[in-house]
TrEMBL record, chain A:
Protein name as it appears in the record: Gluconate 2-dehydrogenase
Upper lineage: Bacteria, Pseudomonadati, Pseudomonadota, Alphaproteobacteria, Rhodobacterales
Pfam families xref list: Gluconate_2-dh3
From TrEMBL, chain B:
GO annotations of cellular component type: plasma membrane
Protein name as annotated: Cytochrome C
Domain of life per record: Bacteria
Classification via InterPro entries: Cyt_c-like_dom, Cyt_c-like_dom_sf, Cyt_C_IC, Cytochrome_c-type_DH, Membr-bd_ADH_cyt_c
Residues the record lists as binding heme c 3: 336, 339-340
GO molecular function, a single term: heme binding
Keywords: Cell membrane, Electron transport, Heme, Iron, Membrane, Metal-binding, Repeat, Respiratory chain, Signal, Transmembrane, Transmembrane helix, Transport
UniProt cofactor(s): heme c
Residues annotated as transmembrane: 7-27
Residues annotated as binding heme c 1: 56, 59-60
Organism (species): Pararhodobacter marinus
Segments forming domain Cytochrome c: 42-145, 187-299, 323-413
Gene3D superfamilies, per the entry: Cytochrome c-like domain
Length: 235, 433
């Protein structure tokens, strides 16, 4: 699985979180239009997508459910509301590439180290990528992605990840975006719509936005407290 | 009976005459306290420095406005008072004021037309400024400050406080003798005393107000001097006595917090941040040392805080991270611990100590609640430019939670201040909105 989309570097992340969380405060996060500090976890069935069409939503439910499946040890993408996270991100500044450099040149066969090579915004990549990939599934596996059985879905996603589908060059980031956004929705603070009930944090033992447990470093025993989110809720 | 009516009538007439006299007979203005030669000229920079000592800038400049052009809204218990334009603009400022006019504003709180100034202008303290500093400041404002034509918002207090003539009576009670006579022979202590009592007008916030809202102590010898007050929702902590914010602090600690806004124990908050930003960071090292020596001297008789109390019960509880701990302790771990740590001692010059912190343990919890709800940001100073910030937790915590957290802080690590209830939090929250 390659990762060709612009990613937050560790340095920016560390600088950003230390500055924002410890010193500058949580307010800067709360002001972004795609955050809802007051939002409760919305069951997927009751959610009306803001950006995605019904067909796109159906695809996303099916695809994220294969990337982080529900069967297994921890919660899956669907129980944690990952599709909601992605829909909200696409409806907001992430979707419109507000923070991305969007002038050319775009060189589709440039090495991944040279970054995103599509003139399309992330929202446009999803909008064009989903029907293009569904079309490929139709032609190569006999049905749209969400109608395939899980094994066939996994094979199709593997082909997408390996670049073995015939997606247009400006859609080459579709897979890595989908993968990255699924992970983000799974682990990000619940204020962004995913990680419902902080389930992913509970699963991996992450204490959340508590940010400090110095006294526990080097102690070979589990940290006793459950996580806390940016809104201050405890789980 | 007729005699009785005559007496009553006479008293009424006398009363009216007295009232008219109070309103219309011009105030006798305090003269210069030292005779200086007519051609006396301040040394270069003296006037600006005296302005820094007096911190004219903080109140007479609105946020983002031109320096000294006034219009800053000053919240007082009586209502909002707008500071005046003290640039040398002829029409809207103090252009055209004589030295005697300028001195009368500082010493007597009157404008050239006889209007009484509200004591938001600290003439209770400024009347102790030396003639040299008055002359130097006059020279600075007339010749070095840029005139700005800006009409400020009219101060409109409600009746009876809009009757400014009443201030004349108030001044008879509130004002002491002009001039400065130090309590100390030592020149360093005397210099520190001068800055604190006179131009620095520390007493305007750090002394309590008496029943007529005058400063209850104006000089080092008054027991109420710097015994603590409250300003704009923040605590102006006692600087002497058993609750002294600076007890146990060294002269270096005090000089450091005045010069940079932060030291090993604490960080300035509230209105005091403006003092560091516009005034005390510009003090010379000698003057910072003098103020520090004077304040340390005021705390001679105070029991110092234990330097290292060892591991406290509070620290043990927090370090256990036990899911059974009370709400206040749990909220501390979830919200505060990352910076202030389980021992409540924070980090030097960055995260203030909460153990023994005067804001935390103040009798009125208002300053602490203002801090928790709205956060705070240090001013940038030349020696410590970074504007360190604590975020507000008003969004994250409801009133019950803030009350539980504040009560925990006020009783943790050996602190022993009263608990806080949710109603007080709600009240503080409302005043911040």
């Amino acid at each position: 699985m390659s990762s060709k989309t612009p990613q937050t570097t560790r340095r920016v992340f560390l600088g950003g979180t230390a500055g924002a969380a410890a010193l500058a405060g949580f307010s800067s996060l709360a002001q972004s239009p795609d955050t809802r500090p007051d939002a409760q976890a919305v069951p997927l069935d009751d959610y009306s997508p803001e950006f995605l069409s019904a067909a796109e939503w159906t695809f996303l439910l099916a695809a994220t459910a294969r990337i982080i499946p529900s069967e297994g040890d921890g919660p899956g993408a669907l129980e944690t509301g990952v599709p909601i996270f992605i829909d909200r991100q696409l409806a907001g500044e992430f979707g419109t590439a507000a923070d991305l450099y969007m002038e050319g040149p775009f060189v589709p066969d440039a090495t991944p180290q040279l970054g995103i090579q599509s003139p399309l915004t992330p929202a446009e990549i999803y909008r064009q990528g989903i029907p293009a990939f569904d079309d490929w599934c139709q032609r190569n596996a006999g049905a749209a992605f969400h109608d395939l059985d899980t094994d066939a879905q996994d094979s199709a996603l593997q082909a997408l990840a390996d670049g073995d589908t015939d997606l247009a060059p400006e859609l080459r980031e579709f897979w890595s975006l989908l993968l990255q956004n699924t992970r983000e929705g799974y682990f990000a603070d619940p204020m962004y719509g995913g990680n419902a009930g902080m389930q992913s944090w509970i699963y991996i033992g992450y204490p959340g936005a508590r940010a400090n447990y110095l006294e526990w470093i080097g102690r070979d025993e589990p940290y006793p407290l459950g996580p806390v989110n940016i809104a201050g809720e405890r789980a | 009976m007729r005699t009785f009516l005559k007496v009553i009538g006479g008293l009424v007439v006398l009363g009216i005459i007295a009232l008219l006299a109070i309103i219309f007979v011009p105030v006798q203005r305090t003269p210069a306290q030292t005779a200086l030669a007519d051609d006396w000229q301040p040394e270069e920079g003296h006037g600006e420095y005296a302005m820094r000592l007096s911190d004219c800038m903080a109140c007479h400049t609105e946020e983002g406005g031109e320096p000294f052009a006034g219009n800053r809204a000053i919240e007082s218990p009586l209502g909002t008072i707008y500071s005046t334009n003290i640039t040398p603009d002829e029409e809207t400022g103090i252009g055209g004021w004589s030295l005697a006019d300028f001195r009368a504003a500082l010493y007597d709180g009157v404008r050239p037309d006889g209007t009484h100034l509200y004591p938001a202008m600290p003439y209770e303290n400024f009347r102790h400024i030396t003639e040299e500093d008055v002359r130097a400041m006059y020279d600075y404002f007339m010749n070095e400050v840029e005139p700005v034509n800006q009409q400020v918002e009219e101060t409109a207090l409600s009746f009876p406080f809009d009757q400014r003539w009443g201030l004349r009576l108030w001044k008879w009670v509130a004002l002491d003798d002009p001039g400065f006579v130090p309590e100390y022979d030592d020149p360093v202590l005397a210099r520190g005393e001068y800055i604190v009592e006179g131009p620095g007008h520390c007493s305007a916030c750090h002394s309590p107000r008496n029943t007529v809202m005058a400063q209850a102590g104006l000089q080092a010898g008054d027991p109420e001097f710097l015994a603590g007050g409250e300003i704009a929702g923040w605590t102006a902590p006692p600087l002497r006595g058993p609750q002294s914010a600076v007890r146990g602090w060294s002269e270096e600690d005090i000089a450091m917090i005045l010069g940079t806004g932060r030291n090993a124990h604490a960080a300035l908050n509230g209105e005091m941040q403006l003092v560091a930003r516009d005034s005390s960071q510009y003090f010379t090292d000698e003057d910072l040392g003098a103020v520090a020596a004077f304040l340390v001297g005021l705390n001679d008789d105070v029991e110092p805080v234990a330097e290292d109390p060892g591991e406290t019960e509070t620290e043990r509880l927090l370090a256990s991270a036990s899911p059974d701990m009370g709400l206040g302790a749990r909220l501390y771990i979830d919200n505060c611990n990352a910076c202030h740590f389980v021992d409540g001692r924070g980090a030097d010059e960055v995260f203030p100590e909460l153990a023994g912190n005067s804001l935390v343990t103040a009798e009125s919890p208002r300053g602490l609640l203002t801090m928790i709800l709205g956060g705070s940001q240090l001013p940038s100073t030349a020696l410590r430019p970074y504007r360190l910030q604590m975020p507000g937790f008003g969004q994250r915590l409801d009133d019950e939670e803030v009350a539980a957290l504040a009560s925990f802080l006020r009783s943790g690590w050996g602190n022993s201040a009263a608990a806080v209830d949710a109603a007080t939090v709600a009240d503080t929250r409302a005043s911040l909105e």
